[in-house]
Amino acid sequence: MVATVDQVERVALELPCSDRAKLAERLWERVSESSCPDVVMTRELECLLDEGLEHLDRSQTTDSLRENPIIAGDALPVGGLAVGLDLD
Question: Is 78 helix (H, G, I), strand (E, B) or coil?
């Protein structure tokens, strides 16, 4: 019988803290050694990242952005100006 992820998680969470830590470490080692995706960096992506770092004080978390999605017509601050976003 093959255990589901939920079953394994339930059993793992019942382990003592030190055993959970060992299990987490072993799992992380397996994940990190088996998945090494290549990172593709384009000039456009680099510029967007640089711009984001310049305005880090106005950054939002992914969860916050998901809770308050940008709606067409919303005004976004760009270089001190409020610019309307047209998604059509």
Answer: strand
Residue type, 44: E
Q: Dump pLDDT digits (tens) for 57-70.
A: 777 777 887 887 66
Return the amino acid letter for 24: A
- Per-domain residue ranges for the chain? 5-34
Residue from 86, 60, 58, 88 nearest 73 by CA: 86
DSSP 68: S
pTM confidence score: 0.37
Mean pLDDT, residues 4-14: 92
Rg for the chain, CA atoms, rounded: 21
